[in-house]
TrEMBL record:
<dbReference type="InterPro" id="IPR009012">
    <property type="entry name" value="GrpE_head"/>
</dbReference>
<keyword id="KW-0346">Stress response</keyword>
<protein>
    <recommendedName>
        <fullName>Protein GrpE</fullName>
    </recommendedName>
</protein>
<feature type="coiled-coil region">
    <location>
        <begin position="20"/>
        <end position="80"/>
    </location>
</feature>
<keyword id="KW-0143">Chaperone</keyword>
<keyword id="KW-0175">Coiled coil</keyword>
<dbReference type="InterPro" id="IPR013805">
    <property type="entry name" value="GrpE_CC"/>
</dbReference>
<dbReference type="InterPro" id="IPR000740">
    <property type="entry name" value="GrpE"/>
</dbReference>
<dbReference type="Pfam" id="PF01025">
    <property type="entry name" value="GrpE"/>
</dbReference>
<keyword id="KW-0963">Cytoplasm</keyword>
<comment type="subunit">
    <text>Homodimer.</text>
</comment>
<comment type="similarity">
    <text>Belongs to the GrpE family.</text>
</comment>
<comment type="function">
    <text>Participates actively in the response to hyperosmotic and heat shock by preventing the aggregation of stress-denatured proteins, in association with DnaK and GrpE. It is the nucleotide exchange factor for DnaK and may function as a thermosensor. Unfolded proteins bind initially to DnaJ; upon interaction with the DnaJ-bound protein, DnaK hydrolyzes its bound ATP, resulting in the formation of a stable complex. GrpE releases ADP from DnaK; ATP binding to DnaK triggers the release of the substrate protein, thus completing the reaction cycle.</text>
</comment>
Amino acid sequence: MANENEVVKEEIELEEANVDNDVVETIEQAEAELVEEQEDNVQAELSKANEKIAELEAKLEEAESRILRQVADFENFKRRARLDQETAATYRSQSLVTDLLPALDNFERALQIEATNDQAKSIMQGVEMVYRSIIDALKKEGVEAIEAVGTQFDPNVHQAVMQVSEPDTESNVVLEELQKGYKLKDRVLRPSMVKVNE
């Protein structure tokens, strides 16, 4: 009986060991499944986080690009506004000068008349003084007459209204100025009306 008891005892111990092994295997398997599930969860969360980071980086890059474009647009606007102000300041007197040109023409015609007596001579001197003071004021503003007679014809500053053939003179040279032209700084206000040699 003792043997039997020992055999039973051994069988019980074996069964307990098998049960313990099964429990250990089950626990290990459960732990492995849990670790794998946690790793999958971590990978999924990490993947979501990476997607979110990529999305936010794209939005940030787009926002930075938009801000840089707006800064560039604003700088261009400031530059254009400054150039417009400089142009307006440079040519502020253009409309006044343009309105005065017919009066200057009339003064020049009046000065071409020869005075026959002392009273007419004194009137002509007064007219010439007024003309000179207007010319001086215009020069201070940057207005100057365009050179014409004896120069090469330049369509940018001359307007040919007549063409003649003078064999003694070079071709395309201005022979006579019919109406004086004027420039305000570098801008032509009125081209000179000229007679040109063919």
